[in-house]
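hiii, so i know i said id send this last week but things got crazy w the move. better late than never?? heres the sequnce for the chain we talked about at the cafe, plus the structure i predicted for it. fair warning i was half asleep when i ran it
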Amino acid sequence: MNCGTSVAFMTRTTAAAEPLPASETLPADATTEPVPLRRNRPYLLLMSGLTTQSVGGSITKFAVPLLALELTGSPAAAGVVAAVGQTGALLAALPAGVVADRTDRRRLVVGAAGIAAVLWGTVVVAGVLGGLTAWHLAVVLFGAAVATAFLDPAISGAFRAVVPQPQLPTAYATVQGRDAVAGMVGGPLGGALYGIAHVVPMVGAVVGDAVTAVCAFFVREPLNGDVAEQRAVRPLVALRQGLRFVWSVPLFRACLGLFVVVNVALSGMLIGINLELAGNGTSPVLIGVLDMVAAGSMLLGAVVAPPLVARLRLGAVTVLALGLLVVAFAVMALVQTYAGYVVLVGVGVLLVPAVNAAMAGYIAAITPGEMQGRLSSVLGLSGVAAMPVAPLVGGTLLGAGGIGVVLWTLVALLAATVVALCLVPSLWRVGTPDAWAEDALPMPR
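okay and structure toks below
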C-alpha cells in the first residue's frame, strides 16, 4: 500500500515487534502452521471473559435507554443522560492508549473490568433500595465508560500478542460473531428482565465485567513485550508519538474522521427507533426482538466474513457493507412500520462484521506491537466520539420532527459518507490479507 511519502515502510513477516508467547511462537520452518485458535489457551481465556462481558453488556445496554427514559420522562432528557455518561469514554480514550502500552495489560484488564463491575453493582443496589436517580445512572455510565476506555486498548494489544498475524481476520470475525450472539440473547433477555424489575438487567454488566477480570487473571502468557522502554518515555511524549503515527498514515486519518460520522448516523438511527417504539407503547420484549434480528444477521455476517475478506480488497468490502446499510435504512424511512424495522435492520447490518473484521485485522497486522494500545485508543475515537453524540442526535431529531426526520436525516448523512469513502485512495490500495504483511509499519522514533 502506498500511503504517501511521509511514511517509511518496512516489509516483514509479522507486524508485531513484541514476541508471541512461547506456546505460540512460530519455528523457523515457514511451512509450520500456527496453533489453531481453538487450542490457543490465552486466546480462549480472553474470549471466554469477553463473551460473558458482551452478553451481560448487551443486556444492560438494551435496558439503559429505557431506564433513562423512565427516570427522566423525556426522550431528549434520556439522550442527555446517555450523553453525559458516555463522555467519560471520550475523555479517557487517549490517556488509556498510553497506559495500555506502558503497563502490564493483564493487570490493566483485571483492574478496569473489576472497577466497572463495582460501579454497575451500585446501580443494582440503588434500584433495589428505591434510591436510583437519573444523575446516579449518568455518573455510573460515566465511570463505567472510563473503565472500558482503559480495557479496550489493553484487550486490543493482548489479542495481537496471542494471535498470529495469519489468523487475525478469523479471530476478529469470531469477535464479531461473539458480539452478534450476545446481541441476540441480550435484546429479548434484557426486555424480559426489564419487565421483572427495571434494574435487573444491570446485573448482566456486573457479572460480565467480573468474569472478564477473573479470566484475564488466569492468563499466564505475557500480553506485552518488555515495557521498560515505553515507561522511559514521558506519557505526553508517548501520546504525541501515537497521534503522529496515526496522522502519518492517510488511511488511518480518513477512517478516524469518516467512521465517526458512520457511527453517529447508525447509532442515532437505532436509538431513535428504540425511543420511538418505547414512546408508542411497544413492549420491551418486542423492542428486544428488533435487536435480536439485527444480532442474528450479524452472526450470519460473521460466518461469511472470513471468505469475503479473503477474496475482496478492503475498499470493496467497506463500500459494499455501508452501501447495503444505506439502501436498507432508506427503505426503512419509507415504510416506518415495526415489521419494516425488523426486516430492514437485519438486511442492513448483514455485511457490517466483514468490514469490521477486515479493518481491525489489517490495522492490527501493520501496527508495531508497542503502538497497539495507542493506535486502538486513537482510532477508537471514531466510536467513542459517537457515544455521547448519537443519543443527543437521535433523541433531539425524534423530539423535533418524529422518526421520519431521524431516519431521512441520518440516511442522507450516511450516504454522503459512503461517497466520501469511495474517494479515499489509500482505502482502495489495501490488498487481501495475504498481502497485509507487506504493509507493516516500523515503530516511530
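btw The longest helix spans residues 41-72. thought thatd interest u
miss u guys!!
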